[in-house]
Specification:
Elements: E1 3-6, E2 9-12, H1 13-31, H2 33-43, H3 53-65, H4 74-102, H5 110-140, H6 165-180, H7 185-207, H8 218-247, H9 262-273, H10 282-306, E3 317-319, E4 332-334
Antiparallel strand pairs: 1-2, 3-4
Helix pairs in contact: 1-4, 1-10, 2-10, 4-5, 5-7, 7-8, 8-9, 8-10
């Protein structure tokens, strides 16, 4: 495996891709944390936020929790997104190389990126889902400034169920076991396969329309990443709403999706809350996805350059060659 020298250390290619992906995910997530908090509260139909809209929701959070309220749950979000993005980007690159290795005649292009991106997204979700669950539960909670912690049974604006990431993980595991840590993962997988694949597909497809001399420029990368995230998220957003409602079902006595599988939950939301609920928070998500996807792809590509990761066209693929007697001969590197 190709290695690069950084500070006297030989860094394997996969590790460099992990680092690039983790940094990209962390930067993008912190930049849009306030919008993510509001989106979750709208998706899960928190009583205090019904009909509030974007500006009203921001005012409610600021009035009840202060400026730090916009980042409630962001610690768990960053703790999840750094390994998630690292695995996501690295797995995408690895799956892409494996597909080329296993199918030498495959055409390299956006369709390859669609397949590799979809599988990589599923891998990353399964690996980091419990942290996504914790992020949602922490973001769902409200805490009035200066209020003391209250029990789960008290459905007041100042309720405080979980004290932090570890406390949340331990509480969920103690109450529901390992299965509880993966509650709502099915819609996540249903959504991430098309979303992740489409995001990489649209990003790489749009880059083919950028003149070669401008492909390393920041503005084209931001533009391609923005459109890629926008299109991918719009197509898969209803499944994200189902996932959020499943994740907070234990915290809401009126939750419609308790104990129901993904598509039945989807039907129940449409029946009782209306089809518009499937797109609740989508306008805010647009405001979040555009900078998040744009920053994510741009920072990732920039980190790849800084870490001397070869371009996908230049990265070698090792193809084993058999000698006449059937034994392995020296491998051949192909681009």
């Amino acid at each position: 495996m190709e290695e690069a020298e950084r500070g006297g250390w030989a860094v394997p290619l996969a590790v460099r891709e992990l680092i690039a992906g983790g940094v990209a995910g962390g930067v993008a997530k912190c930049a849009v944390a306030p919008l993510e908090r509001v989106k979750i509260l709208l998706q899960t139909r928190r009583a205090e936020f019904r009909g509030s809209g974007l500006v009203g929701s921001f005012r409610t959070i600021y009035r009840t929790e202060g400026p730090l309220g916009f980042y409630r749950g962001n610690g768990a979000s960053v703790a999840r997104i750094v390994p998630y993005a690292a695995l996501h980007y690295m797995a995408y690159e690895e799956y892409r190389r494996w597909i080329i290795l296993g199918f030498p005649n495959v055409q390299q292009g956006p369709v390859l990126d669609l397949v590799a991106g979809s599988i990589a997204g599923g891998t990353a979700v399964v690996s980091t889902y419990p942290l996504d669950l914790v992020r949602t539960k922490l973001a769902y909670q409200l805490q009035v400034k200066g209020a003391v912690n209250l029990s789960l049974r008290e459905s007041k604006p100042s309720e405080q169920v979980y004290k932090g990431i570890l406390h949340c993980l331990k509480t969920i595991y103690r109450q529901n076991g390992l299965k509880g840590l993966y509650c709502g993962m099915a819609p996540s997988l249903y959504g991430i396969f098309p979303y992740s694949g489409l995001k990489f597909y649209f990003y790489e497809k749009m880059k083919t329309h950028v003149p070669e001399e401008h492909r390393k420029d920041i503005i084209p990368k931001l533009a391609c990443g923005s459109v890629a995230g926008l299109l991918g998220q719009t197509i898969t957003y209803p499944l994200d709403v189902v996932r959020r409602q499943m994740q907070v079902q234990a915290l809401s006595s009126s939750n419609l999706v308790k104990g129901k599988e993904t598509f039945r939950s989807l039907a129940m939301i449409v029946k009782h809350q209306g089809w518009k609920q499937l797109f609740s928070g989508l306008s805010i998500n647009y405001l979040k996805v555009v900078p998040s996807a744009a920053l994510g792809f741009t920072v990732y590509d920039s980190m790849r350059d800084w870490l001397n990761v070869p371009s996908r066209e230049q990265a070698p693929v090792v193809v084993p060659v058999l000698s006449e007697d059937g034994s392995d001969a020296a491998p051949v590197h192909s681009s």
